[in-house]
């Protein structure tokens, strides 16, 4: 291995480690551009270098500008710098005597983003990219349906302070006002300040940083990859579809979704929540990466992708499957309705979930207190969801969580595709949040998360900006629960949990009319959920036919 300082067009030198396989070359090369240290385990993921070298690829890993061994200044919001630096580095590799001129890129998280950034400028030497657990829509980095992804991307910019990393353990995630959280901990961060100051997608701030038109012009092969419990699952699926729609005839825009979170913790724990996994998913992921690079970077006719553009894992069933579309052929939307006698918050068994439309039914009510949020993820690592997920019975015992449960299933139910809930909600607060979780109730009573979602009520129409709630008014609020592939076994039951917080995965809604992040106080919100014939609250599942 040699470390080289590679000069960019503006004279800044970027530290780059070059690993060469055995043999005389020249070799096809794979590049990663990372902000987390090119020699750290997360900088390259375990086994990546050895696997690429064994497959006959050169591997170059580079500290992005302003981080670790590279010169310049790091700016988390500067896509232009990442695009230009990526272009220059790809072309530098293509010109080296050990390179055959063909370069691919691989990355996880931010260095998945640097793959997209480089590809947006179309460097001639760049043949294909494999970006994971990231996307090119910058708004989706930090917000989900108007809610700040507080414990993950929300504090990421603070973590990136300095040449190496800041100690974010000193942050008080409950500090109010939220906009002063970083300053309160002595970690003033202009990037965090900017993100909190721009909570709406339509704000000019995001348009200036997304470069979506350039991203959608990417026409080289792309392998998007993520896991069902990553912080970017929904955006990754959406952006795969965007790129595929630009050039649907090319058949080189691939998507892999596995039983993983951001750190792929299930590789070592062999579990996703309460579900045990079969051995081999870590090895399987690397085999897919190699197949992709062998096909497009090394120009081998290996049939990669012939079984389908989408390669996905079905949870509980423990099987990998292939499809050309998402959702796959054979899946159809299926509506399940919420029912109760008005006591769905008194006992997890009181509410009912079935496929019959409701008639005249009483409402359900609960009180959301931001001082006591649902906080099952507090004290865990938001990037390691698969190992943080556990039995949810304690959550369902709370008075501020409504539950609606199906009868035991007569046969297995495979839920594969997008999920969406529509709740008819009334609140006495000017703003609040709506959370929905779809869960698997085991015969012994244990409860496992299938998938969930959140929606800020004032941001219920994401394209028109903030719209505060009027008292005594019922609103239909859609909650995007992203996608999943999960087979619920016979004898298990489906359940829907309804509440108003998921802290600190997402910031607490203080239930006030103060501008986002500026409320120093909170107030309780009295929530009313309607589920009658005129306002049928429901969830739409994508179900695979048998």
Verbal overview:
The protein is α/β, with parallel strands linked by helices and 546 residues long. 22% of the residues lie in helices and 30% in strands. The protein has 15 helices and 25 strands. A hairpin with a 4-residue loop joins strand 13 (310-314) and strand 14 (319-323). Helix 3 packs across helix 4 (110-120). The longest helix is centred in the N-terminal third of the chain and has 16 residues, at 79-94. It is globular, with a radius of gyration of 24 Å. The mean pLDDT is 95.
The dominant shape is globular
How would a textbook summarize the main sheet? 11 strands, mixed
Share of β-strand residues: 25-35%
Unreliable parts: none
Distance between the first and last residues' Cα: 53 Å
Overall pLDDT metric: 95
Write the layout of secondary structure elements.
Layout: E1 2-7, E2 13-19, E3 27-34, H1 41-44, H2 48-54, E4 58-63, H3 79-94, E5 99-108, H4 110-120, E6 126-132, H5 138-142, E7 143-144, E8 147-148, H6 150-159, H7 181-184, H8 190-197, H9 204-210, H10 212-215, E9 222-227, H11 233-246, E10 253-258, H12 266-269, E11 271-272, E12 275-276, H13 281-296, E13 310-314, E14 319-323, E15 331-339, E16 351-354, E17 364-368, H14 385-388, H15 393-396, E18 402-405, E19 413-427, E20 433-441, E21 447-456, E22 475-488, E23 493-499, E24 525-530, E25 538-544
Parallel strand pairs: 3-4, 3-5, 5-6, 6-9, 9-10, 10-13, 16-18
Antiparallel strand pairs: 1-2, 2-4, 7-8, 11-12, 13-14, 15-16, 15-25, 17-24, 18-23, 19-22, 19-24, 19-25, 20-21, 20-23
Helix pairs in contact: 3-4
